[in-house]
Design goal:
Order of helices and strands: HEHHEEHEHHHEEEEHHHEEEE
Distance between the termini: 82 Å
Number of strands: 12
Number of domains: 1
CATH architecture: 4-Layer Sandwich
Number of helices: 10
Radius of gyration: 26 Å
Mean pLDDT: 88
CATH topology: Glutamine Phosphoribosylpyrophosphate, subunit 1, domain 1
Strand order of the largest sheet: 4-3-2-6-5-1-11-12
Structural class: alpha+beta
Shape: globular
CATH superfamily: (Glycosyl)asparaginase
């Protein structure tokens, strides 16, 4: 009997010891980090804002836009997910849209009055507040890449025309014949605008001329990103305004108007009636409202896009991301091509009004 009791005591002791060991073993033993432990990151893009109506869009064209928006944003998201920088993500994401004839940027750029394609772009690093931009270039395959070179490898912020193209050659960027940017639908759009201009030339008031602008001003592509290191960046690239004259330059290459990034607040890319976005210093204004008035990103974006710009007489939209990964896609037009992805790889794509 004593031997039996001794054996039972030993068994209980061993069992208790095993239970204690199990309770001190961590519940999560996988090498993969839980989602909440992954540093925050995110990306948001636009492909232009304007009179984008469902009834004017074929199913096939809508699908094409959504497919290209998804391709672009997944390109940048993959870079961020793998630890790449916000600047890298912005540049490569915009490259995808620049190479597509669907958007008014590089390959799909609109035509100026003289039937040339004049391209503008800018990029900004929220960590250093360094920035680069180009305006009025005609033979640079990817203008956002040249803007990056200006930022990283020159003493300047903005280069234009032939000088910018000479710098691109020195930096070894891809140069193309201007015919590369020709697309039939953009050329036809120019001819339609010119025809309307001729038809109304007998009564060409300022209001009539504004109507030409209003129907042909939109386009542009842009991207804003937050990387795992907490750094923000933004970039914008455009072909400008259909039928523009006199080497007109809009807001896209203007730091603070078309593009702005600051790690303390947010990164912004604009699209819309450039003259008003320049006067309103739209991208910086959103950042300033956050920094000096303590507004959230969404509050600041709504204040500028829904109140300030319409009051001035302009319209358009912005995409933005703040230092905490919050995203804004604000516009006061009928539509804006847009998409966003967060660190959980949740994808949102939109075209029409909210």
């Amino acid at each position: 009997m004593k031997n039996l009791l001794l054996l039972l005591s030993i068994f209980v002791f061993i069992a208790c010891g095993n239970t204690s060991e199990k309770e001190t073993t961590p519940a999560f033993t996988s090498e993969a980090k839980p989602q909440d432990d992954i540093p925050n990151f995110g990306i948001v893009i636009h492909g232009g804002a304007g009179t984008i109506l469902k009834e004017n869009m074929s199913d096939s064209l809508e699908k094409a836009y959504k497919t290209k928006l998804e391709e672009a944003i997944r390109t940048g998201h993959e870079i961020l997910a793998n630890g790449g920088t916000a600047i890298q993500a912005v540049q490569r994401t915009i490259n995808v849209m620049e190479d597509s004839p669907l958007f008014n940027s590089a390959k799909g750029a609109v035509f100026a009055n003289d039937e040339t394609n004049q391209l503008d772009a800018s990029i900004m690093d929220g960590k250093t507040l360094n920035a680069g931009a180009v305006a009025g270039v005609t033979n640079i395959k990817n203008p956002i890449n040249l803007a990056y070179e200006v930022m990283e490898n020159s003493e300047h912020v903005l280069l234009a025309g032939k000088g910018a193209e000479e710098f691109a050659t020195q930096r070894g960027l891809e140069i193309v014949d201007p015919s590369y940017f020709y697309t039939e639908n953009r050329f036809k759009s120019l001819q339609k605008v010119k025809e309307r201009e001729r038809e109304k030339s007998g009564n060409k008031t300022a209001a009539n001329y504004d109507s030409f602008i209003k129907d042909s001003k939109f386009g542009t592509v842009g991207c804003a990103a937050l990387d795992k290191n907490g750094n923000l960046a933004a970039g914008t690239s455009t072909g400008g305004m259909t039928n523009k004259r006199w080497n007109r330059i809009g807001d896209s290459p203007i730091i603070g108007a078309g593009t702005y990034a600051n790690n303390a607040t947010c990164a912004v890319s604009s699209t819309g009636w450039g003259e008003f976005f320049i006067r309103g210093v739209v991208a910086y204004d959103i950042s300033a409202l956050m920094e000096y008035k303590g507004l959230s990103l969404q509050e600041a974006a709504a204040e500028v896009i829904q109140k300030k710009i319409p009051k001035m007489g302009g319209d358009g939209g912005i995409i933005a991301i703040d230092h905490e990964g919050n995203v804004a896609m604000e516009f006061n037009t009928a539509g804006m091509y847009r998409a966003t992805m967060n660190k959980k790889a949740e994808l949102q794509i939109g075209i029409y009004e909210k």
